[in-house]
Amino acid sequence: MRTRCMLLILLLLPVPTLAQGTGKAPVSLQTEECLDCHVISTPGIVKDWQSSRHSRMVPAQALKKEKLARRISSESIPEALTGVVVGCYECHGQNTDSHADSFEHNGYTINVIVSPVDCSTCHAVEAREYSGTKKALAHGNLVGNSLYMTLADSILGHKAWIDEGFSVAVASSNSLHETCLGCHGTRVEVRGMKTMDTDLLGEIQIPDLSGWPNMGVGRINPDGSLGSCAACHPRHSFSIEIARKPYTCAQCHLEPDVPAWNVYKESKHGNIYLSMKEKWDFDHVPWVAGQDFTAPTCSVCHNSLLTNPDSEVIAERTHDFSSRLWVRLFSLIYSHPQPVKGDVTIIRNDDGLPLPTTFTGEPATGYLIDEAGQESRRQKMTAVCSGCHSTDWYMGHFAKMDRTVQEVDGMIHTATQVMQSAWESKTADDSNPFDEAIEKRWALQWLFFANSIKYSSAMTGAPDYAAFKNGWWELSRNLEEMKELIDLKTRSQESGVSK
Amino acid sequence: MRTRCMLLILLLLPVPTLAQGTGKAPVSLQTEECLDCHVISTPGIVKDWQSSRHSRMVPAQALKKEKLARRISSESIPEALTGVVVGCYECHGQNTDSHADSFEHNGYTINVIVSPVDCSTCHAVEAREYSGTKKALAHGNLVGNSLYMTLADSILGHKAWIDEGFSVAVASSNSLHETCLGCHGTRVEVRGMKTMDTDLLGEIQIPDLSGWPNMGVGRINPDGSLGSCAACHPRHSFSIEIARKPYTCAQCHLEPDVPAWNVYKESKHGNIYLSMKEKWDFDHVPWVAGQDFTAPTCSVCHNSLLTNPDSEVIAERTHDFSSRLWVRLFSLIYSHPQPVKGDVTIIRNDDGLPLPTTFTGEPATGYLIDEAGQESRRQKMTAVCSGCHSTDWYMGHFAKMDRTVQEVDGMIHTATQVMQSAWESKTADDSNPFDEAIEKRWALQWLFFANSIKYSSAMTGAPDYAAFKNGWWELSRNLEEMKELIDLKTRSQESGVSK
Amino acid sequence: MRTRCMLLILLLLPVPTLAQGTGKAPVSLQTEECLDCHVISTPGIVKDWQSSRHSRMVPAQALKKEKLARRISSESIPEALTGVVVGCYECHGQNTDSHADSFEHNGYTINVIVSPVDCSTCHAVEAREYSGTKKALAHGNLVGNSLYMTLADSILGHKAWIDEGFSVAVASSNSLHETCLGCHGTRVEVRGMKTMDTDLLGEIQIPDLSGWPNMGVGRINPDGSLGSCAACHPRHSFSIEIARKPYTCAQCHLEPDVPAWNVYKESKHGNIYLSMKEKWDFDHVPWVAGQDFTAPTCSVCHNSLLTNPDSEVIAERTHDFSSRLWVRLFSLIYSHPQPVKGDVTIIRNDDGLPLPTTFTGEPATGYLIDEAGQESRRQKMTAVCSGCHSTDWYMGHFAKMDRTVQEVDGMIHTATQVMQSAWESKTADDSNPFDEAIEKRWALQWLFFANSIKYSSAMTGAPDYAAFKNGWWELSRNLEEMKELIDLKTRSQESGVSK
User: Fold this and answer.
1) CATH 1.20.850.10, applies to B239-326+369-388
2) 3-state secondary structure of C83
3) Which of A18, B219, B361, C223 is buried most deeply by CB count within 10 Å?
4) Which of these, A237, A113, A183, A213, lies nearest to C295 by C-alpha position?
5) Residue C495: what pLDDT?
6) Domain with CATH 1.20.850.10 in chain A
7) B236, B45 contact by CB (below 8 A)
8) What is the pairing mode between strands C287-288 and C202-209?
């Protein structure tokens, strides 16, 4: 049914403007030509794009919106782009000189990957805000940290059974791609060109990419830029609605290590969201508290531009997702003030380890924001809370959270003392802190259980995530089992029977 | 942007009736004044209230509804309240004499917390039904039970590492607040007054509350009443729609200890709900089976007023959430008939423990409802089932459930025998039945795994919660590991090496 | 309120055609009579049916639809059925001679259970496609496999504590019904007749069925047919919308053993589905990619008839749910090519065990589809992918999946070597490979953790299911704990202290 003849016929026809668009806004001739084939070869992409604002509005119109309602942040846009809708060629045809993944395709030079730099033509502020964040740098922040890679290898490395023991390999690039880098982002490199057999065109030459496909937040793109806007604004609808819904964040922020989504959906906020969301407006800009939504989603608290019904700004839009966060709840191995910079590979704790805290809980102060910085960010967040809560309510809430962080970190300290005791007594081997069963039980304490309690506290709900579901129950139970197993092993070794 | 000047200007203006309401129903002058500031300071609350029935209808109108459609149950309402909508002051300004949390705020005496007694002005029957239930008494039912508190302390108490062993503290009030009392409810007490700095008013004096914020079902309020209506009808929308949706119940009834929501959403009923809910009417009173919904949610089975399409009552509304329940599936440590009274701290089993069953499974008969009481409640529930199922279908269903409860309780008995054997042989120490790793494994059997299977059976679906997900698989596996660990410990102790 | 008098009155009235239907299509006199009572006794069922296409359209009209839009596949339908809507009697009154569950009910002979053979009157192709599949044969595929039943017994059999050890019974039929057969389907047999007391009719005689109620995919029906269409098209709405939504598949395909739903909802596809589904058309036939939906659900990839917006077929409808699958990711104990036949009890691996692979990973080649068969199915699936993705994208995706399956199977092999070492050294007893704690830990590797990673890879998302949530983290951690526990036991046995 899909024949090359059809393509040839199409190529011979004059290309009518507006033909494949939505019929209301002008489409470039280049994009028209893309659409002619792709409406047949990948109809889902084309329809998705046709549903988008990109297909319905030209940048010149978008620029005329009043400031608070504007969805593009660049003050000026190249004239060639202002009069046509944002179609295939407008995105895939940009900056091809700096794209190692550019290639010749039916008479056009295009890029496989549209990068944040390409998007920044119209969305300059968002791209700039994002570029220096922990998210943008997520690839390097992981693979550039020797301790984290030791952990990754201990999890992902193949374990062969040789002489009644394990021979452990390093993590393969494939297993890293499927796990950590699925969220952190891969390094996409062009290995050369390859031949691909397609239905419509037969054999074509395309770039041969490593680490592909991937939409991780810190993807290293073939133009050297960092990130994938499609991580949150998938894929050709570029939807603000999807990005504002918590399912987007849930792709990576879920239990057991980062149980933000799990906690949220069982919280009071999540309850209201899940019950009432069909009546909310997820597309309105600015996003009006009480009017467009009556309970926060992730993006309400962390990054959206919010106003009250009188158009007074409650919170400015930001694509630096830490800018309203003062404490980093995520335990490494304790909670600590947010890092000063997005590049966290530079951090060294007082023991010289690439961690933001020592094993006794001392923060790596110089690398973390100070009191004033924390207070400034706290005020940005509480401004959001104040949309629906009294000052007393949210002050009480955050005071509770502070106490909880302290209590849980106290339990991490105890578990670390148990672990250190085992290392000292040689019941465990401290040459690699992650490659033994008992060491992974220690990691469970801070990597899973502590985070579950802290996130539950922060989102003021889902008490079961603080209690039984990966919470205090497991924190205490696993601590007791750690000691039991160490005792059993110690006695077994002392009894003189060697393994 | 939010200036005190604005406030002053507002205060000087005459207060127009209807100005801040929905424009259709009269608003009291006091509430108008509340709204004048709060539309600026907490717009989310105001908008939420404006979306509610409370803002659109005065009680006098509501009382005229025919009986089945009526949403207020009080036969008479103080005249001062019947002619204005139910606004800020109508709720926060009630019964201030009996509220320890009342305070002076801009010329009005108001309460921080609106309690069930306040709501009972219009919703007398619901408040009365609720007041004596296990839910209303949930705070005391936990903290007044010495055995449960021993468990709570063993989970939540800080464990310090001293001399190669743990020194265990009791649970802090903060950790109780974050976990158990998040659902059971805190005791909210007024510690005095405190100064709070606010944007609009500068420094104000407000009551200093302990155990706050909290919306647990058994919260002890500063007026001495029990409960928080906002636990299920959040927060200023007082929505019946939200209360009827299962996400509300899911805040507390979730895995691993009470996996009602988790089982429901994977069941046939949950499948139909999740697939079709956008086409249902969650606001209609009475709730018409087949017409407003085509599969039950939690509230259909447990408390809503249901009729058939001919307005014949299938089930009466109740806010005693046990009134359609005969068996308490939740294992303590076995299933048993529902308690006679909401105050379950009075229960003593035959061994004198504050538990509804003995460790061998004997029910504490005098404290639990008898056969006739069970049959009466069973009939209330099966009337709901009969809306969509033949008699044979639901009889077969409940016969299956009875068998499953018996089989699972048999497995709890075996695990308890294993535990008792360890206590007798001193492999475990029976002075505290919850503070050792092996004892927490025993608790897993009845507190997590048994409940998963029983709830899965009760909701006739989600077979994986009976099989692999915290079900029989774990029940058997953990039992085998309990024995293995006890054996290892026994041998290790016998081998003469002391720890 | 529900009196027998009412029934008598109703029975005396003339039966008006159209009275209980939707008022637009003719209803048979028999069905009218059913409805007269059941609108009172089971209003939920009647309303559900009234919402269905079955109640609104007669088969004669349905047959006139053009081929791609047709929802019934039989070319000819008995004339008696073509002119009336598909009501109670049209389904429950069919083929009563071959139904052991037929009985006399108010003057009509009807069947309790409507089977796939009954549905095949109008849906012949679907019934035929389904009849030979692994799903249809799911009951026998489980209970007819001695090894799987050994596993089932080790999980479900009651364990009594006798002489400080366990005495293990075989699985009861009740526990099998509640767990495995909840999804696989029960064998429903007629044990005789029984008396049932009903509200409307008093005591009536009905068939006494074993294994009932149940809606498992491989249910053995009293007419000898296999399956329950209501497993996916519940219950009297026969909804294609419900079947197309993933909640339906989620009833059985969920974590920890088959985490398809869990992985899907955290994937990019699931994110788009959950965010945008209210704007999709789940009822349209054929289902148009990009237009009716913009991301796949389970049924998009696995069985729906899909076209592009130009009505060109992307994928044919099938009710053989393996027909687009080449590899069986589900580890038994390794991944392997899909079986040739739906009856998988015939499979024997090279060691003579009823498994599709040996413990070293050799596939049972003769029973599994060959390279050509795999390629043919792969093309059916990739045709679906190509609706929204470039050839390079999905080729890259599946290459990644192939590598991941290989890596994970490598880890299963290592765990199996550890297990075999324990069997050889008699630290574990190999007479039953599933009944010891250490053996269940081995089963965790392939039954839970390997599947989590493989499914995550296959659905290109939810990296946490490949990483921390039952993924590589657990695969490595449990492997290390297996070795630790075996070592402890070995030493404990060697130290000469007997248990």
Assistant:
1) yes
2) coil
3) B219
4) A237
5) 74
6) 253-326+372-387
7) yes
8) unpaired
Cα separation, C368 vs C347, whole angstroms? 9
Kindly identify which residue of chain B lies nearest to residue C47, measuring between CA atoms.
B290
Give, in order, the Cα–Cα distances in Å from A262 to each of A247, A253, B233.
10, 9, 22
* Res A12 pLDDT > 50: no
CB A477 within 8 A of CB C477: no
Does ipTM top 0.90?
A: yes
What pLDDT score was predicted for residue C94?
96
Which one of A43, A174, A181 has the shortest CB-CB distance to C308?
A43
Average pLDDT over residues C357-385: 98
Cβ separation A51–C294 shorter than 8 A? yes
Q: Are B4 and B202 in contact (CB under 8 A)?
A: yes
CA distance B481 to chain C (A): 5
Kindly give the residue spans of alpha helices, DSSP state H, lying in A277-390: 298-302, 371-385
Segments in C251-358 forming alpha helices (H):
260-266, 268-276, 298-302
* Integer Cα distance of A455 and A330 in angstroms: 8
Other beta carbons within 10 angstroms of residue C487's beta carbon come to 18
- Packed helices B391-424 and B371-385: angle between N→C axes, nearest 10 degrees: 130
Mean pLDDT of A173-199: 96
Q: Which of A180, A213, A255 lies closest to C396 in CB terms?
A: A213
Q: Per DSSP, what are the bridge partners of residue B306?
A: B287, B315
Q: From CA C493, how far away is CA A271, in angstroms rounded? A: 53
pLDDT interval class at C16 (50, 70, 90): very low
**What radius of gyration do chain C's Cα atoms show?**
26
The CATH fold assigned to C239-494 is Hydroxylamine Oxidoreductase; Chain A, domain 2 (1.20.850)
Provide the pLDDT for residue A495: 74
Looking at residue C23, what is its pLDDT? 60
Q: Please, which chains are in contact with C (at least 3 CB pairs closer than 8 A)?
A: A, B
Q: Min CA distance, A316 vs chain C (Å)?
A: 24
pLDDT digits (tens, 9 = 90+) for B233-278: 998 999 999 999 999 999 999 999 999 999 999 999 999 999 999 9
State both tokens at A129: 């805000």
pTM of structure: 0.95
Rounded CA-CA distance B108/B78 in Å is 20
pLDDT computed for residue A20 by the predictor? 55
d(CA B399, CA B382): 12
**Residue linked to tokens 């990711």:** C329
Ramachandran class of B106: left when φ > 0, alpha when ψ lies in -120 to 50, beta otherwise: left
**Lowest mean pLDDT, pick from A15-19, A49-53, B374-378:** A15-19
Question: Where does A253-326+372-387 sit in CATH, by number?
Answer: 1.20.850.10
State the pLDDT at residue C18. Answer: 47
Other residues' Cβ atoms within 10 Å of the Cβ of residue B96: 16
The distance of B177 to chain C (nearest Cα, Å) reads 28
Rounded alpha-carbon distances, angstroms, from residue C279 to A35, A241, C275: 24, 12, 9
Per DSSP, the three-state class of C51 is coil
